Amino acid sequence: MSRTTPFKIRRRLLLAGGALACPAWATFAAEDPVTPEIRLRELLSERRSLRLLRGTEALSATYWTAESGYNRDEYLNICWLLRDVQADRVFPMHHGLLDVLCGLQAWLGRIGSDAPLQIYSGYRSPKTNNRTEGAALNSRHLVGRAVDISVSGVSNVKLAGMASLLGRGGTGFYPGRNFVHVDTGDERIWIDRARKKAS
Fold it and tell me: Around Cβ 10, how many Cβ atoms within 10 Å?
C-alpha cells in the first residue's frame, strides 16, 4: 500500500461508503486528532452496552454504567461470546476494545441501524491463529485486543471508516471479504487488496 496519512485513508473509506453525504458522518470526519477520543467518550458516557451475534449465539449485555461502574458478569458473558470457538478457550478481552465496539454500535444506532455486531473472530489461541489464513504471527487476537466484525445492512467500507474514526487502534478493510478487523493496537489503517476474491 502506498504511503498515505491515516486521515486520507479514513476519508477515502468514508467517501467510498457514501458516508460524507450524511451530516452525522461529516462531524466525525474532522481532521482534529482530539475529536475521535472526545466523540468516543461522549458515546460511552452513560452506559456501555453491546448486542452481539455469533452463529446461532446472540448476546445483549451492559458491561458498564455511569451509576454502577463495571458489571463483571456481563463482561464475562461478552468474553465467552468472543472466545476461541475452535479451541474452546476464553480470554479476558481488552476493555478498550469493547469500548470501541460499543461506541461503534451507539453511533450506528444514531444513524438508524439497530442490527447487532456479527462476530467472525475474537480471541484466538496460538494454535488457532497459526491455522488462520493470513493471520499475523503477533496478531492482537492472541491477546484479546482484536475482533473481526460486520453489521447487516451496513457496507464494510462504511463500517471500516467509522471504526477508524473512533481512534483507539487499528482498522483493516478487506475488499471481497465479509468482515472488518478492529483492534486496540497502534493506530494504523490498511486496505488489503491482495485478498479480494476473484469474481
Answer: 25
- The pTM is what? 0.81
Which 3 state secondary structure label does DSSP give 2? coil
pLDDT digits (tens, 9 = 90+) for 94-113: 999 999 999 999 999 998 99
CA distance 2 to 145: 26
CB 93 within 8 A of CB 105: no
Nearest residue to 152 (alpha-carbon basis) of 51, 65, 49, 64:
51
Nearest to 149 by CA among 177, 104, 118: 118
Question: Cβ–Cβ contacts within 10 Å for residue 99, how many?
Answer: 21
Nearest to 182 by CA among 153, 197, 151, 60: 151
C-alpha distances out from residue 94 to 48, 55, 107, 158, Å: 14, 22, 20, 24
Q: What is the mean pLDDT of residues 169-189?
A: 88
Question: Between vectors from CA 119 to CA 79 and to CA 85, what angle results, nearest 5°?
Answer: 60
Residue 192, all three cell numbers: 488489503
Domains located in the chain, CATH noted: 6-188 (3.30.1380)
Sheet holding 180-183, edge to edge: 69-70, 57-65, 47-54, 117-121, 146-151, 180-183, 170-173, 188-191
